[in-house]
Amino acid sequence: MIRNAMTIDVEDYFHVSAFASHISRDAWESIPCRVERNIDSILMLLDEKHIKATFFTLGWVAERYASMIKRIVDSGHELASHGCSHHRVYELGAALFREDLIRSKKLLEDRGGNPVVGYRAPSFSINSQNLWAFDLLEETGYRYSSSVYPVRHDHYGMPDAPRFAFYPNPKGKLLELPVTTVNLFGRNFPAGGGGYFRLWPYAISRWFIQKVNDHDHRPAIFYFHPWEIDPEQPRQKGIGMKTRFRHYLNLDCMEKRIRLLMNDFNWGRMDEIFLDHAG
């Protein structure tokens, strides 16, 4: 039975890119956080299902919740970087991105006590316009990235990228691990979680992942956020209808669906599935 990668993007509800024009970073400190209670719920669920996962964690969160980071690592999960403050890669530019990579890596390693070798760009913001990001990831000591989503989307996407693991620089050692898609009718459909997992009936998501395992004979990479299992989070005012729909849709169903997914497939950490296989 193929082992798939279970990943969690550790950020709070007010960190999401869709809220960036409504909630300034200067206001983050004054907003009540819910990330720790949600991560503790996720840790209990993973322990119940005997699953180890990868936690792509914001440096902003790690700075403020050191004991939570320790609980993640002590539970046997992989700690990886999601950057410092949820800036998209193309917002930072090369110099600031390099600083962000170094700072977040050091912070997470100090908090977790283990090497950090994985990275996921906020909002999957590595695309054909900033391929220099891969070189900087390798230069700063990362061994893999999961920052490409090979789909068409209004906020992200690199539809022409390979669907499965590839080396962005053929002479380099950095491995890119795109979030899972299914190719139907010549088009890639998202199959790796996030809002699509809440939008579509669970049976469709299950069928997609089963197809990747059985037809492509590849592991799937699935992700979700702690705030997605938190239907009681504060509702933001003044946001557009599309943003409201995407963010709040089916939050009350998410934990149940995650449980079903954990029961229906075999799951593990990114590093153990992909880096061990890559040698």
What can you tell me about this protein's structure?
By secondary structure, the protein is α/β, with parallel strands linked by helices. Helix content is 40%, strand content 13%. Strand 4, helix 5 and strand 5 (144-145) form a beta-alpha-beta unit. Helix 4 runs parallel beside helix 5 (132-139). The mean pLDDT is 94. The strands form three sheets. Strands 1, 2, 3, 9 and 10 form a five-stranded parallel sheet that branches. The chain has a three-stranded parallel sheet with strand order 4-5-6, with helices on both faces. A two-stranded antiparallel ribbon has the order 7-8. The longest helix has 24 residues, at 89-112.
Secondary-structure-based class equals alpha/beta
Sheet-strand content, in percent, reads: 5-15%
Number of strands: 10
Radius of gyration: 17 Å
- The overall pLDDT, averaged over residues, is 94
> What does the overall shape look like?
globular
What does the oligomeric state look like here?
Answer: single chain
Instruction: Estimate percent helicity.
Output: 25-40%
Residue ranges: pLDDT <50 for 5 or more in a row?
none
SS element count, helices: 10
Q: Between the first and last Cα atoms, what is the distance in angstroms?
A: 21 Å
- Helix and strand run: EHEHHEHEHEEEEHHEHHEH
Biggest pleated sheet:
5 strands, parallel
